[in-house]
Every structure is written in structure tokens, then in C-alpha cells.
Amino acid sequence: MKNLAIIIGSGIGGLSTAVRLLSKGYNVEIYEKEKTIGGRTNQRVHSPFTFDLTASLLMNREIYEEVFNYANVNYEDYLEFIKVDPTYRCFYPNDIHYDFSTDLVSLIKTLESISSKDSIGYMKLLSEIYERYVIANENFLQKSFENKLDFFNASTLAKALKTKTFSTSHELISNYINDENLRKSLYYQALYVGVSPYEGPSIYTLIPVVCQLYGLWHLKGGMYSYVKALEKVISHLGGKIITDYTVDEILISNGRAVGIKSKNKKEIFGDLVISNADFPYTMDKLIKNDIYKEKYTPIKLNNLKYSCSTFIIYLGLKKKYPILSVHNLFLNDNFKENVDFAFTGHLPTEPSFYMYCPTKIDSTMIEIQGECLNIVVRVPNLFFHTITWDDTTIKLLRDKILYTIEKINGLEDIESNILYESYFTPKDLKDSFNSYGGTAFGLSPTLTQTNYFRPHLKSDTIKNLYFVGSSVHPGPGVSIVLLSSKLLVQEILSNL
């Protein structure tokens, strides 16, 4: 009889792990508390508009394809990738904007319009970070670090030093770039993993470099089309997805994970359990016996560092806006002060934000001549008790953001053309997706919470219990979670 793998949660990590295990002969059952699958990589549909709920940046296209290749399935039967260029359009106060392209000629023209010195500095910065990225990808992102000696050995530590992660993104970027607007366009992208560019390690400058060198992609139908594709493959391979099943406990017998339990529903037993629920939530809520919590007791969990959260406005617009690209940044004055607010418990007074407009290149996400627009602002997580996410707070922040957007030339009438509007807050992250503390990216990927120091893919105290997702190694972001799924299955198979 085939081994049965029980997966808690149908986020990207859970779904991709299911595909991999099914292709290796496992029986797989996924248990999801919501009525729809996908976790935070979800969608919001309000005809005639379709919005990606959270994830929208598709970097490292190869890892998206690799899940299908692993299962000997042709991804082209399920997905259609569309190249995004320019990668970003960056807006600034005083009616300034720049396009950043993967095309070298176009990029150089943009940079030279800023300054020749910064054009040279930008290229030097790309070169240095690319070298670090190659080292990090080969020696850290592609290894699981389950054992102490996997990390604490002369070779690995020497390579860690070569990544020069002890400086911040701000320090590294400012060594090469003088223009403040250009700096801000690079600083902002560290926020994609929920860390501050002024405090987080400089390794996260690899995000703008990966975008620049490898490009950004869009999936036709939005990011949720990837969830739907994985669902189809799981069904084709014989896996099961059970929705509306809230897991309340991981069952443990004699130090071994043997199944899951839900109130008012039958217990489910299997040969191994994989939690795609947020790791801190899993340890706090799903493992009842403190003996098995390892070092992740409630006190320990409270002392860990967590990523910031996010506030999203979804706008369904009844007209097209040529000034928008697919991926847009508005980088405001007093940038540092307002970025810091997301990590000190305050709402921004002059917000900088990301605007995602997929309908520039994807007509399948809208049924009229208009736009779907997500406006994303980094805000404090719920561990700060200074903000109450009620209607008053939402309206205050919403009005501030819309007021700022309407100062962009070409977007002056945006509010008068809204057909649909809704919001997503840190409270939604916590309530709908069990995101611990309402964080957007789980545990913060600081130096002391990465590689061997980040929660492992395999439990140290409970046999046959595994983890996948943003809060475990290698870290946050859809492409990195897909990588954690790959490492996890390698670990499971090696344990056989």
C-alpha cells in the first residue's frame, strides 16, 4: 500500500509539494480550512473584474515550470507566460517617472537621463549583486540545512562571507548610486520580503537584480491561474483536496506524527504530515504538547522577529489608463520615515506604494474596457497594538492613498472612475490564512533567521512531521516557497 501524505493547507507550498509527492508514488490528501484553495495566493472576483489577492510579481520563471517538469507534465498544457517589459514604471512627486527595462539599450538611456555617473554605478551594482546571487543560489537557497554541520563548516561559512550580507541594502546601494530617486526604486524592493532596506541584510538587493537580469513575467489569468494549474495536475495524478476542513491539531503518537484532527469531524490518519500553515501558527496552535514544540514555545515565538504586513486596495476602473504599466511604484517624499513606520507601529503619513495593473497585458482579467488595479502599501503587523483595522482606519489610509495617486499626471480622475472597490488588511491575513500576527511574509528573513537559523523543513522532535512555506527555509516569496517544496520532497525521499 502506498504511503499517505497529509498536507495541512493548500497554499503554493502545499499544492506544489502534493504534485511532487504524487509523482513519486505517494497518496496525497490536502486539507484546507477555506472553501477555496490557494492560501494567500488567491483571487478576488467581482464581475467584470478579477484581482490577484496578494502575489503578483513572478520572478524566477524556471522554478514555476520546474514543478511540472518534476512530475513529467508539460507546463504549456496548463500555463501561458507573458513577458513584462518594462519591469517597472517608477513615479515620483513633481511629475517625474522612469521606466526600467530588461533591454540593455533602453535601460542605459533611462539611467543616462538620470546621470552618467549613476549609470556606471548601477552597472557596477548589478555586477556585484549578481556575483553574490550566484553564490547564494548555489550554496544556500538550494540546500536544506537540516543538520548543523551542513552549515557550520569551513567551506559554507567562507561562501557565506562572500555574500557580504552584514551590510544593509541601504548601505550597499548608496555606495554605488547617488541619485535619491534611483536609490529609492532599489530600496523599495527589499520590502517584497517584508524587511526594511535600512535594517535588513543587503542580500535582498538580489530581488531588483533578479528582476533586471532575468525579467518579470505574468501568467495569463493572473497568479491564481498557477493555483488552478496545480489543482488540475493533483487531480490528474490522483490526489485529493478537501476544503472547509479546519485542522485543530496534529496528532502525535510515540513521538511520531500520525494524522490530524478537526472539531466535529473525523480524525484523519496518515504516514506523514506536512504543514503548509504558517510555521509559528503550527507550533503555537496545532501542536498541543509542549514537549514537542522544541524551542518554539509561546515565549520563544513572541521573541522572534516578524515581517511587516500589507494593506491592499482593489479598484475596478471603468476606463483605461495609458500612464500605468503592469508593475508601478510610487516613491514619495520622506521615503525613509514612512518605510520605517511599517516596522515601528504607525501608518504612513506620505505613503510610497506598489500599483499592479495586469489588465495592461491581460484582457482575460476584465470583461469591459477598463482596468483592474491593486494598490499595495506596507503597514505594521498585528503585534503592534497601535492600529485598529476598522472602517475609520481603512478610510483614512484609503483617502490618503487616493489623494496621492490623483496627483500623478494621467491619473487625476481615478476616483470618479471607480466601479468596484474593496480592501485587504493585516486582520484578513490573520483571520483567513492563519498568518501569525497578520504578517505578510511570516518570520522576518534577518541574518539570525535565515539558512540553518530559520525553522527547518523537518521537525527535530517529531518523526514524519514536515513544514513548507514562507516562515521556513529558504524564506518568503512565491518562487522561494516553490524552492522550499523542492527541498522538502528531497528531504522526505532521503529519509526513506
UniProtKB/TrEMBL annotation:
Tell me which Pfam families the record gives: Amino_oxidase
Q: What is this protein called?
A: Phytoene desaturase
Keywords (alphabetical) are: Carotenoid biosynthesis, Oxidoreductase
Any one GO molecular-function label of the UniProt entry: oxidoreductase activity
Q: In which pathway does it act?
A: Carotenoid biosynthesis
Source organism superkingdom: Bacteria
One of the protein's GO biological processes: carotenoid biosynthetic process
Q: Which family does it belong to?
A: Belongs to the carotenoid/retinoid oxidoreductase family. CrtN subfamily.
Coiled-coil stretches: none
Q: Which residue intervals define the domain Amine oxidase in the entry?
A: 12-480
